[in-house]
Specification:
By secondary structure, this protein is of the alpha+beta class. It has 2 domains: 142 residues, no CATH class; 148 residues, no CATH class. Helices cover 33% and strands 16% of the residues. A 4-stranded antiparallel beta sheet has the order 4-5-1-6, covered by helices on one side. A 3-stranded parallel beta sheet has the order 8-7-9, with helices on one face.
């Protein structure tokens, strides 16, 4: 770890307090900056509380999503809000009288962070939280007996029984990276908001030749399945896939293709940073390496 790495990582990844990164996923779908992003989700009953299922497990099809969206939009038509369909996973909400509804001012947590947990700790909070819960309770009751959910349950699928507020779509953000290589909708959206060039993720190795800037963020997607499944085997598979990719790219572009780069391993309350040596030796993650932990870092709270 070299001097200044901590400052660099905070400058590069710390979002302004009002910006919730999860809502940036709407930008690749042409969401409106300043609008709110909603995600249809499944809640299940725990011992004495409701738990948010990981949205990736829902398997919501376009026809089912369209039908549920239409029902919710019709039901809420009398309210000072409007809904717009972006995709099966993300919907947009705009306030016609924001000075009275104040929904954009709510303090929210992303579904990625709240998944698998008691939702009481992560529900929107703020001046208009009670009004928001009223609307969401109405949608829940509307969907409870909806034919789509009856069909899903008959097929062994989980019902769609709630809407999760991801936050407000960010407007222009300060430029940080010249290029972002990722297929993750949140990272892609943040890159778009900051004016960065967006390239496909590392599973498209031919695109690596387009990285002409040193100031790049390369998103390695090898552990996403492990994060959503919680499987130890999935973590092992992710590291193996990373190693195969890294060695393959080194064979193609030379051993020094990422010399001096930072490998950022993010967790929920910490970030583990490894600087790749100027003279790389492979499998550096399998031995002790210079590193620093940022405990309770606000950086990670924004990424999550």
């Amino acid at each position: 770890m070299e001097s200044g790495d901590e400052d660099w990582i905070r400058r590069s990844f710390l979002l302004p307090p009002a910006v919730k990164g999860a809502a940036a996923a709407g930008l690749p779908l042409n969401a409106t900056p300043g609008a709110l992003i909603l995600r249809p989700v499944h809640l299940h009953v725990g011992l004495d509380h409701l738990v948010l299922d990981p949205p990736e497990h829902l398997g919501l099809t376009e026809p089912h999503a369209q039908a549920l969206f239409s029902a919710a939009a019709d039901w809420l038509a009398a309210e000072p809000i409007s809904l717009r369909y972006l995709s099966a996973q993300l919907w947009e909400l705009t306030e016609s009288r924001p000075e009275t509804t104040h929904f954009a001012e709510l303090h929210v947590a992303s579904s990625a962070r709240a998944s698998g947990r008691n939702i009481d700790l992560w529900l929107p909070r703020g001046q208009s939280a009670r009004a928001w819960r009223r609307l969401m309770n109405e949608v829940q009751m509307l969907w409870h007996m909806h034919p789509v959910n009856a069909e899903r349950e008959a097929s062994g699928l989980k019902p769609v029984n709630a809407l999760w507020l991801e936050g407000v779509v960010p407007e222009a953000l300060p430029p940080v990276f010249n290029t972002v290589m990722s297929s993750d909708p949140v990272l892609t959206g943040l890159a778009m908001a900051s004016g960065a060039t967006v390239l496909p993720d590392v599973t498209h190795p031919a695109k690596m030749s387009l990285l002409t800037h040193q100031n790049c963020l390369i998103d390695a997607p090898f552990w996403r399945q492990a994060i959503t499944s919680g499987s130890d085997r999935a973590w092992e598979d992710g590291w193996q896939a990373f190693e195969n990719w890294f060695l393959g790219m080194s064979a193609q572009h030379g051993n020094n293709w990422l010399a001096g780069a930072l490998l950022v391993l993010t967790g929920e309350t910490s970030a583990h940073l490894l600087r790749l040596p100027r003279r790389p030796s492979w499998r550096l993650w399998r031995r002790s390496a210079p590193a620093v932990w940022f405990e309770e870092s606000p950086l990670v709270a924004e990424i999550s």
